[in-house]
Amino acid sequence: MNHQNQKRKKDHLNITLSEYTSFKDVTTGLEKYHFIHQALPETDLKDIDLSTEIFGKQVKAPIIISPMVGGIQAAKRLNQNLAEAAQTLGLAMGIGSQRCLVDDSEVTETYRVRPIAPDILLFANIGAVQLNYGFTIKELLKAVKAIDADALVLHLNPLQEALQVEGNTDFSGLAKKIKMVCSELPVPVVIKEVGCGISEETAAMLVEAGVAAIDVAGAGGTCWSEIERMRIDDETKIKVASEFASWGIPTADTLVMTRKVAPDLPIIASGGIKTGMDAAKAIALGADAVGIGGPLLLAADKSSDDVINYLEEVICVLRIVMFCLGTNSIDKLKRSLFLRKI
Question: Is the model's pTM score more than 0.70?
Answer without folding.
Answer: yes
